Amino acid sequence: MHIPDGFLDIKTAMISGALAAVGLGVALRKVRQQIPARRVPLIGLAGAFIFAAQMLNFPVAGGTSGHLLGAVLAAVLLGPGAAVIVLSSVLILQCFMFADGGVTALGANLFNMALVAPVVGYGIYRAVSGLVGNSLRGRLCGIAFAAWCSTVAASIACAGQLALAGTVQWSAAFPAMANVHMLIGIGEALITTLVVAALARLRPDLLDEQTEPARPARYGELAAYGLLISIGLAVFIAPFASPWPDGLERVAVKLGFEHKALVTLLGSSPLPDYAVPGLKSVMLSTIIAGCAGTLAAFVLAYVLARFLTPAEAGKRIARARESRP
Amino acid sequence: MNRQLLSPYQHRSSPIHGLPPVWKCAGALIIIFIIVLAPRFAWAVYAGMGGGLVFIALLSRIPPRYLLKRILCLEPFVLGVAVLSLLQADGLYFFLSVLTKSTLCLFSMVLLAGSTPFSELLAVLRRLRVPALLVTTLALTYRYLFLLLEETARMKRARQSRTFTSRRGQAWRSPALVTALLFIRTSERAERVYNAMAARGWRT
Amino acid sequence: MNALQVEKLSYQYPDHTEALREITFSIAEGERVGLIGPNGAGKSTLLLHLNGLLPGHRIACPSVHVFGTPVMEPHLPAIRAQVGLLFQDPDDQLFCPTVREDVAFGPQQLGLQGAELWARVARSLEQVGLKGFEERVPYHLSRGEKRRVCLAGLLACQARVLVLDEPTSDLDPRGRRELKKLLGELAMTQLIATHDLELVAEICPRVIVLDQGIIVAEGPTGEVLADEPLMLAHGLEKPHILRHLHPH
Fold first, then answer.
1. What φ, ψ does residue C161 adopt, rounded to 5°?
2. Which domain holds residue C36?
3. Tens of pLDDT along A184-214?
4. pLDDT tens for residues C170-201?
5. Residue A177 and residue A184: Cα distance in Å, rounded?
């Protein structure tokens, strides 16, 4: 999902760059305040860990292989703020050392994979494990669903950026990115959950380090990220999610970017999507698939969590038996 | 794999390698900005920039095959997304323009990465007053990256030598287990690195 | 005043197993002492105490004194500058992207800057036989070279006491020979925790034997290492070099 150079125009690059910079700044400040000096090297080494983990092959049918993104893994193991820093560090390294992801697109890539993915993932993880229960099963369910959602969310943000830049039409970008990443998200969910389950077996103390640090501070931090992400969504997606086919023009006017050349260039398609029923129905079907997919993802997450923690059901039954007179 | 990642040409001497890192960074960024800001079909600008980059590549004495290999292995994503742009009007020209922009920018970055050791880039970041926590994180990630990749390879090999079946379930549990073990080792090493840093006077 | 004075040092791990029990010993300035014992004896734990890295919490009455200064806050920065700790795994200690930055790390924390700093870095690298290694990347160095870079980092801090944890482990014979020669040439006080009994026999006039957190023997190396029943009782053995020197 690394956007290369030349795919984003200056305004998209600047907006996403500003959002990413603010998000990273918040994370740096919060982590410095909250994390003891002892744990600072862990953030750096975790960057190397995520990088290395991203390179492991998980075989999929037909000789292809899947790879981990690691946003939710980082968020669950280190906390959301540290995860933002870790993932930013990985992306910056990939950009400057390996030219994986463009320099002008760095802001957008950071926004998608180092801000949206871990923060949305962490929020969903806490919400779901609050709902299903804070036992290992509940947390695994939360992790699986969060990993799927974070992948899809990041891909939608990416599609929005490509569309805002005019490189790819929203009606093509959104279905392509969302559909593909709904599938990729399954892999991400599986890998992340399996890794956490293995850690729970080998070193449960490492997992518990992230539960319940100062709650008020954490909510404030999450709120700050939430605000940035909402602004991003408003800029990158809202114009296209609107029912008006000329949504982009409206946004251009609102933002003052009504430079004639820019607007005509972007809107220069002689085949606006409302005249092509095929494209419109692709959009609709993507949205329906998305809703169904989200539901299915949650169910699958729960099933996976149950599969990985059969002992918990047994423990409950044993405890119930013991407490009977 | 590690040989691919770490540029073996960073420490060569050439007119380009000898430039101060700030100039190299700024130069690469300026070139990229010009390319990105250029109007979509400004083929003359692309040609000019391309020529300039080839000239710099020659000056840097980095083997052309290496440069080509690095650019080509990054092309798949570029192509993948660019394909979507074919759906626009002037689809083919649009596609070609996006492809050209992207490839030229890739060229520029590959040149930068090939002629500048990462520690020099870090020094530039420090001078730009980037927050210390981020620079420390980048430095540690870079430093331990290759070590962890090697550890991963070793653990994979160790697992493979004890794997006699090829059931799909195992095929996923195994890398998941390796990842978990890697994290455990990473956290333990992080404790020891903290001790080593504190032992030489480091305080945040 | 002794370089290192340890009085009744006791320590428990977080899970309450006893690691060290009333350890007492002293090392005079300029002495080179070996610390030997089976795995799990507590050698590495003891060494961490000499730099104030253990215990993890503030202590009121320290059991360790370095040149008369107690090892506790607020003296820790000064202690850590004076006592150079060489860790067992050089990859843990070599945490900077290049050799020059790593050797410079210690003196930088001490406030050194600019030309003076880089001059000291160059001198330290030369002292360990790695002249010109400034721009090298740690990943590409051999194990022996990494160890020597770590040592250079300690010399750059102008440490007066060197505490080394298994300095010759994982080294090939040449690396071991070079390190042994280097340690023999350095004049500062040294405490060497090691399994390499030959090394102890060759360069340490005095030796301390640690087993299960207690000092079970201490004395001139020739005598202690030659005491075969003692060596075998504590998971060690009489080194071959002594067999040749003392055929009886």
1. -130, 130
2. 4-245
3. 899 899 999 999 999 998 988 888 765 554 4
4. 898 988 998 999 999 999 999 999 999 999 99
5. 10
Could you tell me if residue A1 is inside a domain? no
C24 touches chain B (CB under 8 A): no
Is the Cα dihedral A145, A149, A152, A158 positive or negative?
negative
Q: Could you check whether the bond before residue C74 is cis, i.e. omega within 30 degrees of 0?
A: yes
CA distance A20 to C239: 62
Residue A310: CATH number of its domain = 1.10.1760.20
Cβ atoms B148, B182 nearer than 8 A: yes
B117–C135 CB contact, under 8 Å: yes
Interchain contact, A103 vs B32, CB within 8 Å: yes
Residue A57: inside a domain, yes or no?
Answer: yes
Residue A55 is nearest to which of B137, B149, B194, comparing CB atoms? B149
List b or e across C23-57, with b for residues whose CB sees 16 or more CB atoms inside 10 angstroms: bebebeeebbbbbbbeeebbbbbbbbbbbbbbeee
At B105-149, the pLDDT tens digits run 888 988 888 888 888 889 889 989 999 999 999 999 999 999 999
Distance from CA of B143 to the nearest CA of C (A): 5
Contact yes or no for C98/B120 (Cβ under 8 A):
no
- Residue with token string 């390499």: C196
Q: Do B141 and A265 touch (CB under 8 A)?
A: no
Residue A17 identity: G
Q: For residue A317, what pLDDT is reported? A: 63
| B5 in reach of chain C (CB within 8 A) | no
8 A C-beta contact, residue A31 and residue A81:
yes
Residue A98 sits in which domain range? 10-236+269-323
Structural contact between residues C69 and C78, judged by C-beta atoms closer than 8 angstroms: yes
pLDDT value at B83 more than 80: no
Q: Residue C72 is encoded by which pair of tokens?
A: 């506790």
pLDDT value of position B21: 83
C75: tokens are: 């003296």
- In 3-state terms, what secondary structure has residue C234? coil
Nearest to C110, CA basis, from C60, C157, C45? C157
Of C34, C25, C33, which Cα lies nearest the Cα of C195? Answer: C34
The pLDDT of residue B184 is: 94
| Mutation target vs A (from B138, B183, B202; most A CBs, 10 A cutoff) | B183
The verdict on B140 touching A (C-beta cutoff 8 Å) is yes
Number of domains in chain C: 1
Question: Of B35, B81, B111, B159, which to mutate for an interface test with A (greatest number of A Cβ within 10 Å)?
Answer: B81
Question: Is residue A2 included in any domain, yes or no?
Answer: no
Residue C8 in this model has a pLDDT that exceeds 50:
yes
pTM here is: 0.86
Say if the Cβ atoms of A51 and B182 lie within 8 Å: no
**Cis before residue C55, ω within 30 degrees of 0?**
yes
Return the SS3 of B148.
helix
**Using the beta-carbon criterion (under 8 Å), do B148 and A93 form an inter-chain contact?**
no
Total domains in the fold of chain A = 1
Question: Per-residue pLDDT averaged across A77-106, rounded?
Answer: 92
CB proximity B44 to A under 8 Å: no
Q: Would the CB atoms of A39 and B190 count as touching at under 8 Å?
A: yes
Position A254 in a domain = no
Q: CB–CB of C142/C168 below 8 Å?
A: no
Higher pLDDT, A315 or A35: A35
Contact A102, B81 (CB under 8 A): no
Question: Taking the CB of residue B181, how many other CB atoms lie within 10 A of it?
Answer: 20
Residues of C within 8 A of B147 (CB-CB) are 91, 139
